[in-house]
Amino acid sequence: xxxxxFDAGLQxxxxxxxxxxxxxxxxxxxxxxxxLGAAILGFVAGVVGxxxxxxxAVAYTVSAARYRRVHREVSAERALPSASGAVxxxxxxxxxxxxxxxxxxxxxxx
Length: 110
What we know:
The chain has 3 helices and no strands. It is mainly alpha-helical.
């Protein structure tokens, strides 16, 4: 397998970069949950933040593996694999952040 881009449009490469930006954004959000949420949520902020960091790392790894598979399949003109693993990790991360923010807002109102 060659590492050269398959097509002039570089769709798979752009998709990989978009996933990487999303994972980086989730990691930053997780760090903010830990730092800013610690005063109100305490230990829970750390648990949620670490869980989101782990899910962002999983999504990053899955998206890199998917890119390699897509590149290989497209080069061989076969059907493309699904992206369900990365999508699931991102969705779980966003849900965890939403729960942490809701708990933070409720704790701030009380």
